[in-house]
Amino acid sequence: MKKRKYKQRNYAYYKNRIQEYCMGNLPQDSKAPAGSRYYGRRFFSPDQCRFGSMKGRGKLSIFDSENPASGTNYNMFKDWETGKSGDIYMLVMWNEGIQTRYEAYDRIEDLMGRAPEKEQSRTQAVRYRNKTARQARKEGIFKRTKEFFDNEEATCLSRRRTIENQLISNLHETGAFFRSMDKIPCQIKIGQDGRTVQKEMTCANYLKAMILDEPDPRYMCKTDIDKAGWKLREGAKPETFEYLVNKDAKYHLVTWKLYNAKDIEGIPPYEKGQNLSPEEITDRIKTMLKDNGVEMKDEALFKDPLEGIKALRKLAGENTWHEARLPAQRALEREYAMTKLLQHAGATKPYKIKDGALITEYLEHDATTKILYKSAYRGDTASQKINGAFEKSELKRVAQQARELEAMMKDPLQQLEVTMKQDYQMKDTLIPKGAQLKGDDAYKVLFHIVQEDRRLFEDIDNPEYRKEVAFKVQFKDWNQNISLEQGLLQTGNKGTLTESLKYAALRPLREQAFDEIRREEAITERMKLKLFNGSEEFKEAWEASPETLKAAEARLMVQEYQKADLELSRAIEPLLQSESRYLSSHPAYKKIEDRVDTYLYLIPANEHITDEIDVRRKYGEMALDVKTPEFYGRKGDGLVIELKHSLVPDYDGHFMAPGMEEEPLSVKPFIKEIEQRHVQEFEDKFSVSLETDGGRESYKGDEARQFVYALMQDDRDMFTHEQSGMKPVEYSGWRKLTVSYDEVPVLSREYYDGQMKIGSARFSKDLINSEKDDLDDRGRTALKDLNKGLRVLEKYTDNQVQLESAVEFERPKPEEIEAVIQRGFEPENMEEHRPKIGRKVAQVMPWYEAKAIVNYCHTDKEKADYMVAELAKKYKADTIERWIGNYLPKYKKYVKESLERPDIKKAIENQPKRGKVQEKSQSTERRA
Length: 928
What we know:
single chain, 928 residues, alpha+beta
């Protein structure tokens, strides 16, 4: 090959033909980026050209258009010291295996033609003159630059001395590097895309910003402020920081002016991080240690804050002290790293460093200030390494949580799990003990349990009432064993399933703290254990004053309940959020929001009852919830308590819980505004009428309700009385009860006292609703409106006798009622008319008529049939017809018809043969 005389390379001619070479000569369909160009004998990518940054080294990406991952990146640069380069000639050498750049140049000439020769536009003398002038300017700039760097470095070292003196002063006063650690200083920069980037300060800048302790720890340079379009406040003064120029062979310290965010108009407000509790900080330290490979033999040690600090200090020392020579310098680097790590863990209180006296003395003998900043650099490196592993793992955890959240959004309750502790019958399905249900199935069974608890409330006659249910519920990290008796509202009266589970889970602790019997039992057991395991001092205190120790234990149990309530609220928060999303896509379960109509009472403001704890002490497990009147849209003082059962009224305007008659509270029913309207409509529209043989009587409003209760009680009393076989004639007549609302009949029933047709209902609402299935649409609407007002009046009745009678009533079984009715009755107080030998017919016949009445005969025809049947057992047909015609003539017209009945004829035929005494008696009666 011909040797070249001059190293002619012709960059200007071949520099823009890289893409042409790639398209024609690379082995694959590869491309160079369009718009790439050279500047200062270096290659720059299109992005660098677009953003005007031509100071760095560019890259040329050669890639396969069909499979970009198989491409190659070539660094396109020219290193004039080593002679290595990466321009188009280097690309030809790499691609075609050419050893020298001269051969690559010849290869390009062969491919693309020889570059045209250029004429020299300047003479040799002019070129020499220009070279000399450039050299002179270069030497002058060098002198000025050296002087500038010397001045800047002196300023930075002086500033560093001031910072070091302030640190020494802090160590003497507080034993910590800084007076506050609640903010981490940072610089806000504006990226190429216009977004703000937050960069944490390090070394000297970090130390100065921490000493300044500004309320807003953010700083910006003037250039970035202008880029963001923000403005400086009038009179704003910058703070002097430093940075290291490392583009030359020798590094230089220079000053840097940054403005605090408080002096910048338009910058978003500073959002301070949430203050963490000591337990949360301990958990973050534990996570940081685990992310850096630190394990403890006993997992419980991670929960000990002192053990966590000790392990973190050891980790910081292992990442710093291997480069330090003196123990004091090792301690300085370790404690500096510890300070930054605790800040990242969320600590806000100043960290009192270990070996503070040694470190302070070491800094006081630091004549050049290099020791502090070299140690700060190493401490920054260590903290960045340790915290970097923590943040990297945290990002993975956040990503995992995001994936879980995404899955949860599709199926919010997929992690909900229920394990049954005993057999449970859910409608037609038996769920056996040990069965595990997840997701929708778990929510479905829990929903059913809560709904059954509400449905059976106050339904004490239902065989399912007080049925035991036990199960274990689990969601993420929360799991809870729950047992309850259905119908006692042990799941509360809440608007969500999660809150209902919480109420049920806290029941044992609530009963232990506020139920008098359970509290005494718990205190007794605790005192036994403490006396067995306690010290001599405790035993002496018990002997001196046992009641004082019992009172202290009772207060402790209340505190345990409050703590458990708070912890459980935090634990169930994820389940509460998931349930909210679940209900939005499952409207069928919205019924959980329909609460039971319980009992509300207003406690006037007083010094004895001020909060929920006082209410629970007073009412125990009866209390479901405690609110203020504002919760129900009414102004006023005091508390509104929600109770499971109604209170007992006395004659002084007080209401008492059962068993608390000695400590009554002057409370009154809290009737909501809508309930007041229902009561008023009930008074105007509710009516009851009763028809008897003696006439008709009617009542309205609450008086009608009381009348219904009286009729029910009469029916029960007669049933009890008639079991003796005797009934009073005057109270055995026919009756017809009609109940109407807004002139629409909702109940019409004919009955006789003692048949238990109305008395078998426990409350008037049960009787009134007994025929709802037979009503038309108009009747069902009227019955629904009736029940609204009736419920309010039933809840807060002041007739205690009536209430106790309804609650204590033991409903007889249907077969028992039927057996009593079918046995037959005799009229009471009519012994002088009972048939006997020698007694005249005129004297006996009223007995048969009364017996017909007490055995549920209403019309004359029914009475005649009954009397004929009774007489047919002993007398002939003509005798029966003659006696009734002579002594009870109003029934005469029905006698012949009754005697024609087959059963009557058969009874007469089957009469036993009479003896002489009977015949004589009958002839005597005939003569009479």
